[in-house]
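User: Hey, quick favor. My workstation is busy. Could you predict this chain's structure for me?
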Amino acid sequence: MSHLSGHNASVIKKNTSEYESNGLSRREAEKRLLEYGPNLLAGKKKISPVRILLSQFTDIMVIILMVSTVISAFMGEITEAATIIAIVILNAVLGFVQEYRTEKTMEALKSLAAPAARVLRDGRQISIAAEQIVPGDLILLEMGDRVPADAVLTESVNLQVDESLLTGESVPVEKYAVPGAGIKHAKRKNMVFMGTNVTSGRAKAYVTATGMDTEMGGIADMIQNIEEEQTPLQKRLEKLGKIIAAGCLIICAVVSAAGILRGEDAFNMLLSGISLAVAAVPEGLPAIVTISLALGVQRMLKRNALIRKLPAVETLGCAGVVCSDKTGTLTQNKMTIRNIYADGRLIEFRDDKNSGRFLCNGKNIDPISDKGLRTALEIGALCNNAHALSDKNTGQSVFKSIKSSLGAGTEKREFAGDPTETALMAVSEKAGLTVEMLYEDYRRVDEIPFDPDRKCMSVVCVNRKGETYVFTKGAPDMLLKKCTRIYSAGNTEALDGAKRAKILRINDSMAGNALRVIALAYKKLGTDRYRKDELEKDLIFAGLAGMIDPPRPEAADAVLKCRMAGIKPVMITGDHKLTAVAIAKELDIYRQGEEVLTGEELDKMDETSLAEVAGNVSVYARVSPKHKLMIVRALRKLGNIVAMTGDGVNDAPAVKEADIGVAMGQSGTDVTKEASSMVLLDDNFATIVAAIEEGRVIYNNIRKFIRYLLSCNIGEVLTMFIAMLAGLPVPLLPIQILWINLVTDGLPAAALGFDPPEKDVMKRRPRDPDESIFSHGLAGLIIFRGIMIGLTTLTVFVTQLYFTADIGLARTGAFVTLVLTQLIHVFECKSETKSIFQIPVFNNRYLVMAVICSLTMILSAVYVPAMQNVFKTVPLGLNEWLIVGGLSFLMPVLSSLFAPRRK
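Assistant: No problem, here it is.
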């Protein structure tokens, strides 16, 4: 064990017999606390809030916006400057909040340590804060306790520990002390680990590691050492910002120089060049991206997906691999009976919500009247320490409670205890043999608890007639050795070699289907006086029960949707290979020809060799936290955008390493939630598919308003640039350019974020994470439409100037045309594959309202006298409107005929 070789090794004795049986003295404990430090999970040095806030202002787009603010203020455009400042501050605050929240991950890890622990100090049992435990302490454990540190068992009685948060295994692990084995030879079977829970039994253990030297500490260290990476959208927007920055400088210089060389006033041309450069910057882009992502977050929340990091919304849209933990994520995290072998028949149990069906060869069986099946069910329920929970103790979510109160139907009764025993109790209840009914017929008078050597448990019960019975359950191979007869057709007969062989074949068949098999037996005692060492002899074999942690009912549909969307589902689990493959086959995660790798095989590989085969592996079994990290990294090395779902602490490092980490909201630990980018509030694997759909829709909408903003900005730039080159008067004044920019770049672009999804969004393959945001012909669409906007505006300007020789009227016509063409174009941006005449134009009411608002603003600048003075406009008459309207509405016709389309 790695933690035994750390700096705590000096306190570990050679043999378990060498520890102090009375525990440490108070003085020695204080000395070791100073030497080794408190039993806490240390976090890396935190980044100060001030530093996090300042880092929000280093992005190239933000720098451009701040420069634009200074320029606008210099030109007297205080409103424009105030708007840009508001955008910058909004983005900085959102970014700060997201980064600051990620610092909570290590605090959540610390909360998993037990708050208090019982130890022996100076020969006395005392309770101390878990952080005061030191290597060498003797700790006392019993059912319900959380293990406070890594320790080796020195004494144990029927100890079972739930290690699912470390290993992902769905059933508790048997633990037992190994006399004389020596602490330095500790193995996993005689060790307990920090953060795990004792589900049954009691023990005394010698602490071998605390704090960061524990298994939990190793996971904490892995989380700390994972570097955050930019999402694909962040990378593309950063690249776009640099291109725009360079373009702005060139535009400003060329337009200003062209005008000055032509003899225009130098100062006015400099202002025009600066105004145009400001207009060319899509200052609304960062804010609109943020708004679009926030809208997506709200839609996802309605579908039970809580987004913790805004960029994760877009990243989901290009996820190509979904790595999912099995237990509690794809499965129900609850053992359920699948098959019962009784009276020579293999009986299938089908579990419905509030009832169950028993079938043999496709025909229903009544479990109450069928004596063989009823006998097996009664043994399983009576030789059992599970107990029914009231609704308030079932741990059900608030959502379920509300659902129940609204009359959604009565939930089936839940049971607490060992998963095997709860499964046996539940199937008995479904058969109509309730706990209350059985306890009326039988009264328990004695018990022989389960132990690892016997691998059996027995109870002695007395029925209403005063007859005494022994009921036993246990491992099939061990229990068969104790049986001499078999129940058959209402009678008992000798258990000969042929019958034993048949039972073993059935057992092997069940185990081969990844079922955990329990054998059931009984016998009637002739008297109420008995010797305990004789109780488990000459038993009558009653049957076998095969159980499994079954898949969630909706998981298969979710996996199918993933495959239709070109997304590869991968199961990563700590469970046995057979169990993992059986569930994976049932869900269609594993297909013929694909590979299955185990943790033992992964130990012999490095990331490079794993990456060579990872593309064909659909199931990983018996893996550890370091394996999960290795798998995610190998898949990312192949160029995949990887989503990782998980609930236990063991998933947290891989969840954080993945491009998109997904935690379970109900069963997930705080550690995993804090390390994740998204939390599934209903623990439903299907919810991630809905989230992926939303991610694709959001990215498509982001492409829509990038197309709109850049097309419009190109149109504005070309209007000025071509006029300068052609020797025409300046078509637009600086104040007019800034007003157009404000009117068209705000509400209409933001409203595109409300656009509903296109029908085939989940039938497309995931985007290539390296593809440009202008891929699939978007750049061509933007340039073509930008040229059309610019030429149309110039045509109106030249026409009005030619016929009226009124520069004010010509500029007003260009002013209105530039806005109107852009507002028409916003509807074209709803689809990259269809023209405006082929799409539902009015299915986005927010867009319609935004366009009406923008039209009102531009008409106000033309017809309100006070605004006419500000923007140097004059009223347009009918003839001017016929020219403006005719040319503006001609554009979508030309676009439908000649614009390049995405295939």
